[in-house]
């Protein structure tokens, strides 16, 4: 059984390309287009990993990260923040809020796949 990944981003081109990439790597993929949709999908689908954009409408990725970490039932959910906000303070904030990892855009797809496998404990 493949592991489930939620991709949350408000940019359609990023959603499509990440969905293609993760499916090609053998993962089951769920998509969300804003922070509220992401939170609803996390509670409903219980993905092993969330690829979470920081700057999204309704709720930011930071907001979603806080909600996931505050929910005991979602404790095992891994969160990888993907964002254009690459300042040290942004990275520190994301990790302080409970993200497992942080990657800044643009990123290489090879590095992303490597990080996803690392977070899920999967070997290539």
Structural overview:
Helix content is 44%, strand content 20%. It contains five helices and five strands, in the order E-H-E-H-E-H-E-H-E-H. Strands 2-1-3-4-5 form a five-stranded parallel beta sheet, with helices on both faces. Strand 4, helix 4 (88-96) and strand 5 (101-104) form a beta-alpha-beta unit. Helix 2 (35-45) runs parallel beside helix 3 (61-70). It is globular. The model has no long low-confidence stretch (mean pLDDT 92).
Keywords:
single chain, 124 residues, alpha/beta, five-stranded parallel sheet, 5 helices, 44% helix, 20% strand
Helix content: 40-55%
Principal-axes geometry comes out as globular
The total strand number stands at 5
Low-confidence residue ranges: none
How large, in whole angstroms, is the Cα Rg?
Answer: 13 Å
The major pleated sheet works out as: 5 strands, parallel
Class of secondary structure makeup: alpha/beta
Spell out the helices and strands N to C.
EHEHEHEHEH
Strand content: 15-25%
**Strands of the biggest beta sheet: in what spatial order?**
2-1-3-4-5
N→C terminal distance? 16 Å
How much is the average pLDDT? 92
Give a short summary of the structure.
The protein is of the alpha/beta class. It has helices at 12-24, 35-45, 61-70, 88-96, 109-120, and strands at residues 4-8, 28-32, 49-53, 78-83, 101-104.
